[in-house]
Fold this sequence. Notes:
- By secondary structure, the chain is an alpha/beta fold.
- It contains 5 helices and 5 strands, in the order E-H-E-H-E-H-E-H-E-H.
- The protein has a 5-stranded parallel β-sheet, with helices on both faces.
- Strand 1 (7-11), helix 1 (15-27) and strand 2 form a beta-alpha-beta unit.
- The longest helix is centred in the last third of the chain and has 18 residues, at 112-129.
Amino acid sequence: MGEVLGKVLVVDDDEVIRQLIAVNLNLEGFEVETATDGQDCLDRVRDVMPDVITLDVMMPFLDGWTTAEKLRTEEDTSHIKVVLITARAQDDDKRRGQGIGVDAYLTKPFDPAELIQVVRDLAAGAQAQR
C-alpha cells in the first residue's frame, strides 16, 4: 500500500452509496471514515479531522445544507474541504452551496472518477494549507 493521500469523511444516509464512495476512495489511497447523517458527521468530525468531507444533501435528522453551514461556522472545522453530493442539480441549489462556502458540488448519479479527482484535488489543497 502506498502513501495515504488524505483523510475523507463520507456522509450519506444511503448505505450503498456511502460504501460505494468509501470503497472507491479507499482503493485510490485515501483513509476513509463514514457517517450516516449530518448529526453523525458533526458528532465525529473533531475525532476524525478529515481533509475532505463528502456530504449528501438530502438526509434525515440533519440535512447536508445545515451540516455544511455548521461546519463553516465552527472555527475548528471551517477549514475542512466540503463536497456536496446530491440529486438536486438546480442552479438555486448550486448557488446555495456556494453561499455556504462548499468547495465542490457533484450531482447524482456521479462519475466515480470525477469524484476521486475532486477529492484528490481538494485533499492536496488542504494538505498544502497546513
